[in-house]
Amino acid sequence: MPPQALPSNLSRRAPTTLGNALLGLTQIILWGGSFFLVAVIVGPVVATTGWPQGAVIGALSLAILISGLLSPWIGRRIRHLGGRPVLVTGTLVMAFGLVLMALAGSLPVFLLAWAVMGLGMAGALYDPLFAAIGQAYGASARTAMTQIAIASGFAITLCWPASTFLVAHVGWRGACLAYAALAVFIVAPIFAFALPNGRPVHDGRAALRPGTVATVLKAERLAGEGLLAITFATAAILMTAMSVEMLLLLEAQGITAASAVALSALIGPSQVGARILELSFGQRAHPIHLLLVSAGCVALGLLLLVAIPSLAWLAILLYGAGNGMRTVVRGTLPLALYGQGEYAAVIGRLARPPLLGQAATPIVCGYATEFLGIGVLSGILLAVAALNFGLSLLVAHRSRR
């Protein structure tokens, strides 16, 4: 089934570098007020409320779970309404969740706040943003996605110190209110300014009759989409696990705690460096090749970390580079395979398995470390990396067909 064309009013205005940089800023703020906020506030929240630490950390898993369940619906909304209204609404919902979190006087209200956050995250983070850009700009979207990824690449490097500063001076509740204000007064206006306006018009094709060649091709494409979703899911699980267990993995290899922190700091620059290289030299390469390079770098980095601890610095650089390319590939590869007209709906469906995997990963890693040990966990992660590379090879093989 060929991709449906979009009207000219959505694709005529090319994305600008300034607009892409501003969109990258939105992701720094929104990720800082959601994913990266938990690590900073968990201690103060537990200390001031007495709520169980596991429940406080698990609130993020609840938000990710809800976000994953909603992602296909969000993709359809973007396809029918355009990206601007969906992302502005998602941002305002996230802001409301942060305000509710700041006012939470009991654990159920705190969990409810994170559930609301999950609703907003489904409509405002990378996946819906890339869906909106890909649908609006088509072939021009690849450069835009890479520029956004570069601009937001230092999110964790910037947000952890900023959140720590806010918690120290205004408390964890004040930090939540600060991020809510940034979402309302900076992020929402940027989405309204930098995203194109307009509603897609679809051409209403007739339904396919069973037994036709088109039906067979559609079934083949859906099978390929499932394989791609599993590939993205294993990569997301691996990234989440490494975020949770990186310091423990390094220390298990005989690296001191201070050195482990210093080595982990290499991830941000290596991610951004890989994205800059892709923008400068990789624009002519098909995204499927970048998928293979990304998966290969991550797998090789983990292998070096486990087998040759003295090369931990190289292992971190390879892992960071592969992970940096992964963000861009998640946006550009579905666009190359499925086309502009189908893109928003496809990326919404593809977002669900990775998000569900991310929601479960911290809990699974915690229990695996406790009952099996960090050595066994490192072997499991290496196996997941090998599986991801193998799946990437399968995706490349199918894409040629």
Q: SSE order, as H and E?
A: HHHHHHHHHHHHHHHH
What name is given to the CATH topology of the largest domain?
Growth Hormone, Chain: A
The main sheet comes to: none
Q: Class of the largest domain in CATH?
A: Mainly Alpha
Q: Approximately what portion of the residues adopt beta-strand conformation?
A: under 5%
Main structural class: mainly alpha
Termini Cα gap:
15 Å
The radius of gyration computed from the alpha-carbon positions, rounded to a whole number of angstroms, is: 21 Å
Mean pLDDT, to the nearest integer, reads: 84
- DSSP helix count? 16
Question: Unreliable segments (pLDDT under 50, ≥5 consecutive)?
Answer: 1-12, 201-217
Number of domains: 2
Shape: globular
Q: Which CATH architecture of the largest domain would you pick? A: Up-down Bundle
Q: What is the share of helical residues?
A: over 70%
Task: Give me the count of strands.
Answer: 0
Q: How would you name the CATH homologous superfamily of the largest domain?
A: MFS general substrate transporter like domains
Would you mind describing this structure in some detail?
The protein is an all-alpha fold and 401 residues long. It has two domains: 14-194, Growth Hormone, Chain: A; 213-400, MFS general substrate transporter like domains (Growth Hormone, Chain: A). Helices cover 83% and strands 0% of the residues. It has helices spanning 8-11, 17-32, 37-49, 53-81, 83-103, 107-122, 126-137, 141-151, 155-194, 213-252, 257-264, 267-281, 287-307, 312-338, 340-372, 374-400. Helix 10 runs antiparallel to helix 16 (374-400) and helix 15 (340-372) runs antiparallel to helix 16 (374-400). Residues 1-12 and 201-217 have low confidence and may be disordered.
